[in-house]
Write a structure and sequence with these properties.
Rossmann fold; 44% helix; binds adenosine-5'-triphosphate; 4-stranded antiparallel sheet
């Protein structure tokens, strides 16, 4: 018993230390496998509070499984996961409830309920986590979240089948924001959008992150997204996070996948576009000949 109490006290001390730090998500020694297939082994990652962390890696490297482990949809074989200082492994559902309320998730493809309107979709987490909130306030919250994502108010009574791909993503984002989260998980939010729609979605994500002070865990294959809104990028390969840093820091490493990804033709095009954009917005030196 004394040993159990000591272990619980130690866990509480660790939780407190992590909560006080500037780390929103801490993953240590994570292992995930499906049968014989080991997806993650000894994976470590820290997501800092207030940053947009881009998560990249080849198809099947386990980006979604990592996200699912953090939000409790996948029980890892081994490892520790803390979110805002709270250990997430082995917690009963009701124990983890308080922390679950602090995050919102946009799954790949939006994952909207097709038989519910956009507004009803946004209301799902409010009904689930705050059953005492009455219908009028729920409607008002949903309408506010819908506007927050840049959707017109008229989108509220529409069904997902009546929306464009970009509108579906925004509706999914509105639902992810329903509970005023501190932490947002976005799984390939710009996949399937045209470049203009993707850039607009990125802008919206950045604006929301800045105005609401969000921490964002963003899985993407979209180089433009990485360059334009991510503060740091984590690279998954060889079953773990092989590097985390700014794109400049990643470019300084010599891992072949990183070099091929960022220095391949698409990577170079994205770099060139960002360089052009920076040159356009940088203050011009005055030569005194006005
Ligand atoms: N529920 C599951 N059962 C069995 N295998 C799974 C399951 N979920 C994921 N996997 C396997 O785990 C590996 C990693 O999957 P995951 O979806 O995390 O990859 P990803 O990096 O997100 O890929 P992509 O970029 O293509 O979306 C894949 O080989 C996948 O088949």
């Amino acid at each position: 018993m004394a040993e159990e109490e000591e272990a619980a006290a130690e866990e509480a001390r660790v939780d407190k230390a992590v909560e006080k730090s500037d780390v929103a998500i801490s993953v240590r020694g994570l292992k995930n496998s499906f049968g014989d297939q080991v997806v993650h082994e000894n994976l470590d990652l820290d997501v800092r509070k207030g940053e947009i962390l881009g998560v990249v890696g080849g198809s099947g490297t386990g980006k979604s499984v990592l996200m699912r482990s953090v939000i409790g949809l996948q029980t890892p074989d081994e490892g520790e996961i803390h979110v805002f200082g709270e250990s997430m492994i082995g917690r009963l559902d009701d124990e983890a409830l308080a922390i679950r309320k602090r995050w919102g998730v946009l799954f790949q493809g939006g994952a909207l309920f097709s038989t519910l309107t956009v507004a009803e979709n946004v209301e799902v987490p409010i009904r689930e986590y705050y059953p005492n909130i009455g219908p009028q306030l729920r409607d008002e919250i949903a309408a506010y979240k819908i506007r927050l994502t840049g959707l017109p108010a008229e989108a509220g009574p529409k069904y997902p089948a009546e929306l464009s791909g970009g509108m579906k993503k925004r509706a999914g984002l509105a639902r992810a924001l329903a509970l005023d989260p501190d932490l947002l998980f976005l799984d390939e939010p710009t996949a399937g959008l045209d470049p203009i729609g993707a850039a607009a979605f990125d802008d919206q994500t950045r604006k929301l992150q800045q105005t609401l002070g969000l921490t964002v865990f963003l899985i993407t294959h979209d180089l433009d997204t990485l360059y334009s809104i991510c503060d740091r990028v984590a690279v998954l390969a060889d079953k773990k996070v092989i590097a985390v840093g700014t794109i400049d820091e990643l470019l300084a490493t010599d891992h072949p996948w990183i070099q091929e990804y960022f220095n391949g033709p698409r990577g170079r095009a994205a770099t060139a576009a960002v360089t052009r954009e920076r040159e356009k917005t940088a203050p011009q030196p005055s030569d005194g000949r006005r």
